Amino acid sequence: MCSSDLANYGPANFDTRHNFSADLLWNSPKLSRHLLETILGGWTLGAKFYLYSGRPFTVIDSQIPGFLSPTAGGQVIADLLTPSALGIHCTDVNTRCLTTSEFATSATQNDFGNISPNSFRGPGYFDMDTQLSKKIPVTERMAFQLGASAYNVLNHPNFANPNNNVAVGSFGTITSTISSPTSIYGTAQGALVSGRVLVVFGKFNF
Fold this sequence. Notes:
The protein is mostly beta strands and 206 residues long. It has 2 helices and 7 strands. A 5-stranded antiparallel β-sheet has the order 1-2-5-6-7, with no helix packed on it. A two-stranded antiparallel ribbon has the order 3-4.
């Protein structure tokens, strides 16, 4: 732990150290026989994979600004008392990864924190989206396309960072999920669309 000015520096809130994404696209081959082409041809399968490491978070004490001044605002980093907890990764939704005993109380802390911002990491992220469609020709230039898209097709829960406020009872516990970066509803929709979302679509291309 460090009490110098360097302690004010830390990772950005959006710092994702490991980020992997991949796209898969398969088109069924053209078949010479008309009947086989009608049944087995024109299929397209697509998939997108996301795999991220956990994002950082800062442990704060929301009661400290009130102790400093009745008009004080903002956030104050909590003092860490257990150096071995520094840099811990919170990944288990069923286990409290940090405890209040590892930090100073608002009554005993007399500074603005003894560790850098974003000194802890939350759970990682995994998601797979898929799409299956079939093209049905009408003329040489016109065709119907019918298919379905599945966002978070595995219905895999991705959890948010744990509660980072030592002044509340749920401190150190993960209580919410986050949504997929791609969805029929757009991005940043929160836990309301964090599960599997199925969409059936039809198009007429000309």
